[in-house]
Write a structure and sequence with these properties.
Strand order of the largest sheet: 5-4-3-6-7-9-8
Largest sheet: 7 strands, mixed
Shape: globular
Length: 254
C-alpha cells in the first residue's frame, strides 16, 4: 500500500483512507491511471464515481456521474424486500437510481419479473447496465409501468428522495455536488415523492403484496401514517448499525 497515497487521501479528508487507497489500486490500469483516479478523489469526487462501481449487498454495482450512489444503509431495504418475495414474484423498483436495490433483490430471491423506474435519464441508462434482464423505464413513478401489472406486483421497493429541500445544502459535498438534485430533494418536509409512491401502491400491489420505503428516522411516524391512510397495514424496521429505517406497508388479502 503506497504510504504517500494514503497520506494524500487522509489529508483530503477521506476517513477510510487505507480502504479507499486499496480500491483505487485495484481499479487502476497502471501508475498513470492510478494518479488520475487519485487526483479526482482528492478533488472531492465520490470514490464510487471515480472507480465506476459501488459495493452493495455483495454485488459490484456500476455507478455513473450524477446518479445516486447506493448507500450501505439501503441494504436493509433490499434484504427485507428479498425476504418478502414469495415464489417467483413480480418486483418493482421505483426511483431506482443505479438499480442496486432491484439487482440485490433479484440476486437473493426468485423473481419472475423485475421492473425499474426512474425520472432521471442518467439513472435509467445506469440501471440498464446493472439490470440486463429487467424492464427499465424512464418516467415518473408508476406512469411508465405496463397496465398488465396492476394488481399483480408482489413487492414494490422505493428509495425515494427524503431529504427536506432546506437540508440539501447541509448534506456532504459528495452528494451535493456530484449527485443530481432530483435524487436528493424530497420537498418541504422530504416526503413529497414518498406520498405519491404510497398513494399509488394499492393499485399495483397484489393481495398481500408489500410496499417497502426507506425513510428518515424523524419522518418515520409520518411515513407510517401515510401508509395506514392508504389502507396498508404498516410497520417499521430499523438497523442502528447501518442507520437504516424502512417502512413496510402490506395490502389486505381477500
Amino acid at each position: 500500500m503506497p504510504a504517500d497515497l494514503v497520506a494524500r487521501l487522509r489529508a483530503a479528508g477521506c476517513v477510510f483512507a487505507e480502504d479507499e487507497a486499496r480500491v483505487l489500486l485495484e481499479s487502476a490500469r497502471d501508475d498513470t491511471h492510478l494518479e488520475a483516479l487519485a487526483a479526482r478523489r482528492i478533488a472531492g469526487e465520490p470514490l464510487e464515481v471515480v472507480v465506476g462501481w459501488a459495493q452493495f449487498c455483495g454485488l459490484r454495482i456500476a455507478v455513473a456521474p450524477g446518479v445516486f450512489v447506493p448507500r450501505r444503509r439501503s441494504e436493509l431495504l433490499a434484504e427485507t424486500a428479498a425476504a418478502l418475495v414469495s415464489g417467483t414474484g413480480v418486483v418493482v423498483d421505483l426511483c431506482c437510481g443505479t438499480g442496486a436495490l432491484g439487482a440485490a433483490v433479484a440476486a437473493a430471491a426468485r423473481i419472475a419479473e423485475l421492473h425499474a423506474v426512474d425520472v432521471d435519464p442518467a439513472a435509467v441508462a445506469c440501471a440498464r447496465r446493472n439490470l440486463p434482464g429487467a424492464a427499465v423505464y424512464q418516467g415518473r413513478l408508476y406512469d411508465p409501468l405496463p397496465v398488465r401489472l396492476r394488481g399483480r406486483v408482489d413487492v414494490i421497493v422505493a428509495n425515494a428522495p427524503y431529504v427536506p429541500s432546506e437540508a440539501v445544502a447541509l448534506m456532504p459535498r459528495e452528494a451535493r455536488e456530484f449527485e443530481h438534485l432530483v435524487a436528493l430533494d424530497g420537498g418541504t418536509d422530504g416526503l413529497d415523492v414518498q406520498r405519491a409512491v404510497i398513494a399509488g401502491a394499492s393499485q399495483w400491489l397484489a393481495p398481500g403484496g408489500s410496499l417497502l420505503v426507506e425513510t428518515g428516522a424523524p419522518q418515520a411516524p409520518t411515513t407510517l401514517a401515510l401508509m395506514r391512510a392508504a389502507g396498508l397495514a404498516a410497520r417499521l424496521i430499523t438497523d442502528d448499525d447501518r442507520g437504516s429505517t424502512v417502512a413496510i406497508g402490506v395490502t389486505s388479502r381477500p
